[in-house]
Specification:
It contains no helices and 11 strands. The chain has about 120 residues and is mainly β.
Length: about 120
């Protein structure tokens, strides 16, 4: 069974930066898309950023210009560099990996931005 593990969440002041990392293990097929979702209490889950295997990325409008997604296909990792963080970025961030048409998810990591 594919497993995804996130790291890098935490508490940061507004305007600060955090870098989230996610590594997929027990992967026996090529990973297609990878990315990050977030969900805050009482809100719908939101796609933050996604990146294809060839590096084509897309972002939610709310994070464009502030967040950068990257991946390493050899290591099965996907990172999310988050700059100029805002209190409204506070959420649980979860990574996902699409493999053979099926989405696998990590447990999520909390990001809290204080004002």
């Amino acid at each position: 069974q594919v497993q995804l593990a996130e790291s890098g969440g935490g508490l940061v002041q507004a305007g600060g930066s955090l870098r989230l990392s996610c590594v997929a293990s027990r992967v026996y097929f090529s990973i297609q898309n990878m990315g990050w979702y977030r969900q805050a209490p009482g809100k719908q889950r939101e796609l933050v950023a996604a990146i294809s295997r060839i590096g084509s990325a897309n972002y939610a409008d709310s994070v464009k210009g502030r967040f950068t997604i990257s991946r390493d296909n050899a290591k099965n990792t996907v990172d999310l560099q988050m700059n100029s963080l805002k209190p409204e970025d506070t959420s649980v961030y979860s990574c996902y990996a699409r493999i053979a048409g099926y989405d696998y998810w990590g447990q999520g990591t909390q990001v809290t931005v204080s004002s």
